[in-house]
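re the bet — no i am not wrong, look at it urself. input seq straight from the record:
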Amino acid sequence: MTAEADAFLGGRLRLSQPPRGAHRAGTDAVLLARLLVPQAGDRLCDVGAATGAVGLACAALTPGLQPTLVERDPILAEQARANASLNGIAAQVLVADVLAPATERRAAGLLPDSFDVVLTNPPFFAAERHRASPDPGRAAAHTFAGGDLETWIRACTAILRPGGRLGLIHRADALPACLAALAGRYGGLAVRPVHPRGDAPAIRVLIAAIRGSRAALSLRPPLVLHGPDGSFTPEAEALHRGAPWPAP
């Protein structure tokens, strides 16, 4: 654990993380946590939780929410437990690999149709197409060690109830692969591109989807993270403080 916890959401959440240079939660986690608006009674699962940033951020903004955090690395899972305790959040932490066979996932506590909301930041790269980081934790967070995006989405779908909501963040150039993995399983997709600057191509896409829906896809207004001076735009700054997405 780091000696001092990082402040998230304008200080509403404190998060102890691995040292700098390793994989650490930041803007991606904030944006994913604000993508959907859970209710206190929702069963919410953060898949690939690492130190718990996304699920714990949702709980910090929704009193009474008791998230489930799923992480395959036992060390990171223990950090997630400590972060939940640090923030007084009643979270369940499961050490489980979502890419494992279904019997192993169930044995670890990931039961079918058991969540109302699933949020996930899948690994961004296939092992054969990406030179992994020398840091083991960073490599595990960014690169599939086995399986692929299709397998990951299929596992997330298995634990989401029919009519439940999925939220994910990925690289912008992975949008076709994301849509292909969601096809036939989800409808009502809402896609929001995220740009580093107003004059730059998108670097991320946020996708919200409803399991089993037949509703059409919609493209939401883009989010621009930084202004010409490099500081956060007002919209990005507000999201980092825990405000909801700006109205379309």
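see?? Residues 6-240 form a domain with the Rossmann fold fold (CATH 3.40.50.150). told u. also The two ends are 40 Å apart (CA to CA). so pay up
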